[in-house]
Specification:
Helix content: 10-25%
Low-confidence stretches: none
Strand content: 35-45%
Number of domains: 2
CATH superfamily of the largest domain: Diaminopimelate Epimerase, Chain A, domain 1
Largest sheet: 8 strands, mixed, barrel
CATH class of the largest domain: Alpha Beta
Shape: globular
């Protein structure tokens, strides 16, 4: 195996491990075809990078691949503990800065545009540049929409729960945490994970999804539990996605989905900005840029903003006689 080289960043506390070397060439095709090929042929590399002893249960990764869409500056596959996502907002914020800092896109002040091809489609990042240095990043994602509104389900141990399902590049169930007897700052993260996972598992089994563009996009990625943020200015949420992975950031695609639901319910107007806060106190801004359509769905284009930071650079190897070197998880 070739050495795997990475650059580590974080956005709002959520890690992003960007692969910069060590993967074999990926066959040409659409981004969804690349996603399927990597999943079927190179998943052992995801395990090496994301799992212990080099990663951890909640690690997140990004593999840069050749773009297929016209106008794309780069294309990316997202990796986590379960497999490969279709969209990741915290990764877009980090990759926007990375693309400017590493010359993938020439820096232009005051704002540099970076077109990033994702499995869900083209996402446009706007990178603030001052004195040649990249700073905060915002992005406009693919059309987001409310798929199911004010649905109810009975969960063992929790009773009747009211939820929405919205799409923000991935599908999320949305629910108020207080229905589960939970309150931010008062309950353990484990309690939120258990509640969110119970809702996700129930809906995966009983609530079919569809997407107007491609069947590969029609899966429930996770559940977002929301409540009041600090100082009454923010709305707080925790996103539990993939295999009970916990997002440390407010979740970019999740904020996009929440904005779609809020707009459909008349809770936010076009151009109005809200603050979304994570379980570690990091914040994203979110607004509705404009309305659009997604197949039969009334949809929005959301703008989500935040800041990413570098953590380091690493080179990983696997010794042939290492029985645990190819990855494991203990949680």
């Amino acid at each position: 195996m070739d050495k795997l080289t990475v650059v580590d960043m974080h956005t709002g506390g959520e890690p992003l491990r960007i692969v910069i070397g060590g993967y074999p060439p990926i066959p040409a095709g659409t981004i969804l075809e690349k996603r399927a090929w990597v999943r079927d042929n190179l998943d052992h590399l995801r395990r090496i990078l994301i799992f212990e002893p080099r990663g951890h249960y909640d690690m997140y990764g990004a593999l840069l691949v050749e773009p297929n869409l016209p106008g794309a500056d780069l294309a990316v596959l997202f990796m986590h503990n379960e497999g490969y996502s279709t969209m990741c907002g915290h990764a877009i914020i980090a990759l926007g800065r990375y693309a400017v800092d590493h010359g993938i896109v020439a820096a232009r002040e005051p704002v540099t545009t970076v077109n990033i091809e994702c499995p869900c489609g083209m996402v446009v990042a706007s990178v603030e540049v001052t004195n040649g240095k990249a700073g905060s990043v915002s992005f406009e994602s693919v059309p987001a929409f409310l798929f199911a509104r004010d649905q109810t389900v009975r969960l063992p141990g929790f009773g009747e729960i009211v939820f929405d399902i919205a799409y923000g590049g991935a599908f999320y169930a949305l629910a108020d945490c207080r229905q589960f007897g939970l309150e931010f700052g008062q309950n353990r993260v484990r309690d939120f994970v258990d509640a969110a996972t119970a809702l996700t598992d129930k809906l995966k089994a009983e609530f079919p999804l569809s997407h107007p563009d491609h069947s590969d996009l029609a899966f429930l990625y996770g559940t977002i539990l929301s409540g009041d943020g600090s100082g009454g200015r923010a709305t707080k949420n925790v996103c539990v996605f993939a295999e009970a992975e916990v997002d440390r950031s407010p979740t970019g695609s999740g904020v996009t989905a929440r904005l779609a639901a809020m707009h459909a319910k008349g809770q936010i107007a076009i151009g109005e900005t809200r603050i979304f806060e994570s379980i570690v106190g990091s914040q994203f801004t979110g607004s509705v840029a404009r309305t659009t359509k997604a197949g039969p769905h009334e949809a929005i284009v959301a703008r989500v903003g935040g800041r990413a930071y570098y953590c380091g650079r690493a080179e990983f190897i696997v010794e042939e006689d290492d029985p645990l070197g190819r990855g494991f998880l203990v949680r």
